[in-house]
Amino acid sequence: MAAKHRPILLITITSGLLLGCWGQSVPRLIDLTWTLKAGIPVHPFFPPYQFTIVYRDDHPGGYYLESNEIAMNEHTGTHIDAPAHFARGAWRLDQIPLGHLTGPGVMIDVRDRIGDNTDYAVTAQDLQDWEREYGHIPEGGIIMLRSGWGEQFYEEGPVPYLGVGQKNDSLLHSPGLHPDAAQWLVDNRDVKVIGFDTVSADTGDSKTCPTHKILLPNNIIIIENVGHLNEMPPTGSTVYAMPIKIGDGSGAPSRVFAIIDERTSDAGLTTSDFILVLASAIVLIVQAI
Asked: Which residues sit opposite 144 in a β-bridge?
């Protein structure tokens, strides 16, 4: 073959290989929900979660059977606060439009801002600093605030997560969102939902819940006790928050998860693998020319 045709042939072959490697988009799911089980931390205002085995044995009818009962407040575990939780006449849980519970996800990591301040209130400046690095919070976005508190959720006893004994809410300690930052979001961004890896959207030392009283009347849904935010990227996900549909409810335990699309081939090439293949192909083409 003439030397002048080799670059064309190499480019053709390489292009075919790259198209084959690129493959299809494959979703990766990230579970942002804690498992409900005995002993999980609950806001001191509410009773503890209870799980009772009703039946777990062979049934006289000739089959194996399991059945259980649970008792808990609506605001237990990873759960949604409906607007009616703090706003008279606002949406109750079953009135929230389904489309209001999904949207582009952003994870804002504020762990480095907290330091030793167990009642740190995330500021509007914190949010604006994040936007300078990652771009504006998208329209209809779902914000997840990572304080790092969620990583203590299953630790022994309520103190690491709540900062106090289970029935003492006068000394509750955990980070939250400053009311000025909540108002900034209401005034300047189109946000559907804000999630927290803490027991409350307000700081633990708050006695009047100002952040709740700003977000919920403006139909910004609150999710509390979000889990596994260490697995969620700052941008590029779609979040779904699917509560139990309780009629007239002010909230409900919810299955919250994020989906990230990653392109992959049948051979398992992810986006990063593809970029490596592409770079190698470019080098070969340049050398051939």
From this structure: 107, 195
Backbone angles phi, psi at 276, to 5 degrees: -65, -45
β-bridge mates for residue 66, sequence order:
56
- Give the closest residue to 196 by CA, choosing from 181, 182, 212, 175: 175
Show the tokens assigned to 187.
């005034």
Q: Which two tokens stand for residue 29?
A: 């799911």
142: left (phi over 0), alpha (psi -120 to 50) or beta: beta
For 197, which DSSP code? S
- Cα–Cα distance for residue pair 252/223, rounded to 1 Å: 10
- Between vectors from CA 119 to CA 146 and to CA 218, what angle results, nearest 5°? 65
Angle at 214 between CA 210 and CA 219, to 5 degrees: 140
Distance CA 118, CA 116 (A): 6
The alpha carbon of residue 68 and the mean position of all alpha carbons in its chain are separated, in whole angstroms, by 28
pLDDT, tens only, 158-215:
567 887 655 566 678 999 999 999 999 999 999 999 999 999 999 999 989 999 999 9
DSSP designation for 88: T
Please tell me the distance from the alpha carbon of residue 226 to that of residue 229, in angstroms, as a whole number.
Answer: 7
- 3 state SS of 212: helix
Helix (H, G, I), strand (E, B) or coil at 246: coil
Q: Is the pLDDT of residue 3 over 60?
A: no
CB hemisphere CA count around 6 (13 angstroms)? 10
CA 255 to chain CA mean position, Å: 10
At 19, list the tokens.
């198209």
Q: How far is CA 212 from CA 56, 76, 127, in A?
A: 41, 17, 18
Domains of the chain: 3-23+265-288 (no CATH), 27-264 (3.50.30.50)
For the entire predicted model, the pTM comes to: 0.82
